[in-house]
Structures are given as C-alpha cells and as structure tokens.
Amino acid sequence: MVKKKILIIGAGYAGIATAVKLQKKITKNDNVEIFLVNKHDYHYQTTWLHENAVGVRTDEQTMIPIKDLIDQSKVTFIKDTVTALEVKQKKVQLAKSTLDYDYLVVALGFEVDTSQILGLDDYAYPLGTLEQARTLREQLEMQLAGFNKSRTNTPLTLVIGGGGFTGVVYLGELVNRLPDLCEKYNVDRADVKVIAVEKEPSVMPDFDPELGEYAMRYLEERGVEFRLGTAVKKVESDCVTVEKAGRVETIKSSLLFWSAGVRANRLIEKSDIPDKNGSVEVQDDLRAPGYDDVFVIGDCAAVYPKNSKAPYRATAQIAMQQAEVCASNLVKIVNNNQNLNVFQFNDPGTIASLGRKDAIGIISNNKKVFGRTASILKKIIDNRFLYQIGGLSLLLKKRKL
C-alpha cells in the first residue's frame, strides 16, 4: 500500500512542534511518511533573539539541532529552501528539488517588513532571524569599537524604530548590556544616546497601558529617550528623518534597529492559497479555505477571537497550541475520520522581558505582573517551550536560570 505523505515546511515553533507531536501520535498502522523541510538544520528560539542581538546569549545557546528533536525513523528531514507553493498541483518547489505531498503543513513563519519606508531595506537592521541577530550584534559592537568622541564631538546615537513589543524587549536587553559593552570598548556610557521612535502616542500600544507606562519609565531611567507620536519617514546611512505633527526632523544615527513591522512569509501571497495582507484566515480546523489538504499555522495563519475584527497576535504560545490541533487532525484525516478538532486558543497571557531581572506581563484572569515576579514567570514559560519540543534532556541542556 502506498504511504500517505505529510509534508511540513518550516521548523519554527509551529513547524517543529507539529513534527514532534506527529511522530508521537503516528503508528505503523497509520501508513504515513512525514517530511520536514527547513533551510537550516537547526531550530532557533525566536523569542530569545533580542538576547543574541546584544551578546548576552550565544548563537549556540539559541540553536537546537533538528536531529536532536525528531525521531529520524519516523520523520525525514530535508535541508533546503522553499521557493514556491503549487497547491493546485500538490507540489512544493525547493531550491534543489520538487516535493509532492498528500497533506501539507505551511509553517513558514514571518518576515520583518522593511519595504514601506525609503531607505529601510538598505540601512536598517531588523531582528527576525538568528543571522539578523548576529549582524545586529556585530554592528553594535563595531560602532562602539570605532567610536571616538574627540574626533566627532557628537554622541554615538542608537535609534530604535518601533516602541511595540519587540522594540521594548530589545531596549530592555540593550540598556542592561550597554554598561558592559562601553567598558569593553572604553566608551563613556554618557556618550551613547538611545532614542526610541514610535508613531503611536504610547509605548507598547497593543499592550495594557499601565504595563506600557511601567516599561517606558524603566527604560527612561536607564537613558532611553522616547519620541512618541513620531513616524520614521526616511532612513539614510547616517541619519533618520522623522515627522511629528507635521514637523520634520533629522536625527543623526550610528545604527538603526527596526522593529515596527512584520508580515507573513511572502510565498503565501504568491501561491493560490487565499490570503489577506499575506496571512491566511484559516478555517476552525486550521485548514486553508478551499484546500482540505493544506494546513496553515504559526505566523502565516490569522485566527480571530470571537466577535473581534483583529486576529490574535502571533506568538510562540499560539503556535504551539496550533501544532497540537494540527497534528491531531492530520492523524484523524489519514485514518478517514473527518470529525476534526476545532482550534480554540487558550490564552495564558503574555510577558515581555526588560532585561534579565525585570519584566511586565498579563497572566490568567488578566492579572498584571511586574518586576522580578514577571521575570521569573518569563523564564518558566521559556523553559516550558523547551520541554514541550525536546523533553527533559533539552530542558536541562538549554534551560534559562
């Protein structure tokens, strides 16, 4: 009997978790082959990248070899880059080959969107991959190593574009790390200026206002200057042009970190899968509209709370829960059971770190947490993800303390 082929593309939180859960659920009697495609032979913890970007965590600490996570007798890993989705032909084009499938799981993740402002693509440094974190860290240290105030008579200015979730967690890590980096490169901390530009009138506009205020006060006390209600209009190699209430200003900058926009992988909108602004409004069972053999999960999927016009924010937590439902539904389908599970997000809350020892967040029953308590809870959440995808051995090897 010909085996059914399940193809998972992408090994971020959603993709790797689906593979891990499938290999536990599938039995020999299910007559199934599982393939996992990823452009790297490792998974990395996206939610840790801000730590890599300032040098408090090494690449090796954030990377997890895929071979350590999958049962290679059940899952075939293919290291390659997806170039096109041909869902009408039930094929996926890779850089080196073409794969067909019976069932497809699209978990291609997000891209940092730098296309909307002149100069962003050329001069801004985003943070969406391990390589980007490495580049940002190298650029930060290069600027500090080359700084000479007596030669320029101006401060070394670091501009952070975006005061949302990603911008704030990066800022928290940056201001905690800067004193050590300044000492390393013999730079006076007072000569390093950090400016955060946010077009909305508040920090973390999608978060609870009290928590956003806490984060802003925390960062301001450590030297961050916020420009709220201010939009980035143009980026050049040594400056950023911004506008507030019709007033245009040019800020001299040594480095621009961009965190103000992400989008689903562009391969989605280039395919025949129906999309809205690049994301797929999936059915209740996580399948793509019009394609009963295609599941879309993680950052590429738009899932809406009841009576809401805005989808849930894409997080590692929602990706992990989608992976469980996706894996369970795939097992049902291959066994000719069409009574599929409906995805319902159980939101345990969200925590944003502010460096190693502080954080803010909302947990169950909308309880707000601050400071050391929130920081400990964030480490517990991170460690739980490790346990979910790699068990006790991975937790002991990579855990946060």
UniProtKB/TrEMBL annotation:
<dbReference type="GO" id="GO:0003955">
    <property type="term" value="F:NAD(P)H dehydrogenase (quinone) activity"/>
</dbReference>
<dbReference type="InterPro" id="IPR023753">
    <property type="entry name" value="FAD/NAD-binding_dom"/>
</dbReference>
<protein>
    <submittedName>
        <fullName>NADH dehydrogenase-like protein YumB</fullName>
    </submittedName>
</protein>
<dbReference type="InterPro" id="IPR051169">
    <property type="entry name" value="NADH-Q_oxidoreductase"/>
</dbReference>
<keyword id="KW-0285">Flavoprotein</keyword>
<dbReference type="InterPro" id="IPR036188">
    <property type="entry name" value="FAD/NAD-bd_sf"/>
</dbReference>
<keyword id="KW-0560">Oxidoreductase</keyword>
<feature type="domain" description="FAD/NAD(P)-binding">
    <location>
        <begin position="5"/>
        <end position="323"/>
    </location>
</feature>
<comment type="similarity">
    <text>Belongs to the NADH dehydrogenase family.</text>
</comment>
<keyword id="KW-0274">FAD</keyword>
<dbReference type="Pfam" id="PF07992">
    <property type="entry name" value="Pyr_redox_2"/>
</dbReference>
<dbReference type="GO" id="GO:0019646">
    <property type="term" value="P:aerobic electron transport chain"/>
</dbReference>
